[in-house]
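A quick aside before the break. I want you to see a complete sequence-to-structure record at least once, exactly as it would be stored in a machine-readable document. Don't worry about memorizing anything.
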Amino acid sequence: MLKTTFIGAAVAAITAGAALAQDYPQRPVQVVVPYSADGSTDLSMRVVADTFERLFDGTMVVRNQPGGGGAIGSSATINARPDGYTLGAGAQGPLVIKPLIGGAGYTLDDVEFIGLYARSLQVMVGCADAPFEDYDSFIDYAGENAPQVGNSGAGGANQISAEAFADAAGISIESVPFNGSSEARTACIGGHIDAMVASPAEAKSASDAGQMTPLFVMEDERIDLFPDTPTAVEKGVDFTWSSWKGLIGPKGMDEETLAWLRDAVEQVANDEQFRETLTDMGEFVTYESGEEFEARARRDMETTEAVLEKLGMLGMND
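That is the input. The structure line, written in tokens, reads:
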């Protein structure tokens, strides 16, 4: 009798859990953005939230929790109750770079990757009065000199990508960190540095004005915005890099809720209105499953670890 009662209770619990998952979401879903409002991660996540509400007749609330280079907000997500009601904006800096520099308090193993929905592409541009004007002359110059390449901050994604490309291409560069991409852009336009890593949108506007020269794109294939600009890959350097934006959560969510969320991200990323809005914002809409998203993050972490070790920044904040 006891055994029968136990089995009955277990079946009831499983059935109840499935029913809860089928009814998900029953209340507002909170998404923590680990940066301040109005940045690209915040703005794109708000488009995700609007699309979520339109497609699924639910409520998604975006909450900004900046600090610690994104580690504070990411930690809040990773350590949240795993019920599917506290999720996070998954960004490259806090998930891949910060744990290697130190002071994050979590690793990739603590992250549940739900799905990726956009990437921010990167273009290497020559600045005003630079001693090169295209990919080939840039490589020739860098083979004998160390061009000054600006970035948006020491240990940030732009520095990682520039240094990692230099290693892959067998050249030397001198990284010049600034307090944000706008400062780096001003220095580039003013001719105070030789090159910088820029987003396609800012590179396009500056190149149209004759202030920057696109040298190469960090993608597998050329992009529509710069059809005449080569990729490093086609030039024989096996290197790609982009920043990314996705949805993450804490480990331990039940399988039904996780499956629902992963399907939701896929539907959002493939929604025509969503794609148009993000494309107009300068984002490159890309859907990747949770498994693909995690694989990308782990590849980026391997690249980042090698660069930080070379720069003497690995574990510097531990």
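Two observations worth writing down. The CA atoms of residues 151 and 159 lie 5 Å apart. The first strand starts at residue 29 and ends at 33. We'll return to this after the break.
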